Amino acid sequence: MLPSPYGIAVTPDRRLGVPAEEVGHPVVLTSPGIARRVRVDPDLLPAGVSVEVVAMPGHELTLPPAGHGTGRYALAIAVAATAAECRAGLDAAATAVRLELLPARTGRRGRR
To answer: How far is CA 24 from each of CA 30, 72, 73, 111, rounded to the nearest angstrom?
Structure first.
């Protein structure tokens, strides 16, 4: 049992850990555009890996440096016994995510 500040007895049921650098693995854009759709094939995700889509349809995806951080369209999270297993799961997750991209906007109206 683990102590709890809320007076609730907690018993751990697993001994898995995720190193901090392995928690978030962004699926990153290779060319700018507008997200049409992001799909995740759950059959291609290994055990212990989940994917959260962060770009909705119409989201403008840009490349750094102009769009630092706005080229990410999904986030994979892995839980495994070792950092190497986390990395392998995250690499496999990248193949499960498919991005449909529309051409980037050519100009920005209203900006000065």
So the answer is: 18, 11, 12, 33
What topology does CATH give the domain 21-102?
Answer: D-amino Acid Aminotransferase; Chain A, domain 1 (3.30.470)
* One-letter identity of residue 92: A
Model pTM score: 0.67
Over the stretch 43-68, which tens digit does the pLDDT of each residue have?
Answer: 999 888 888 888 899 988 887 766 56
Q: What is d(CA 44, CA 69) in angstroms, rounded to the nearest whole number?
A: 26
| Strands in 15-57 per DSSP E | 25-28, 33-40, 49-53
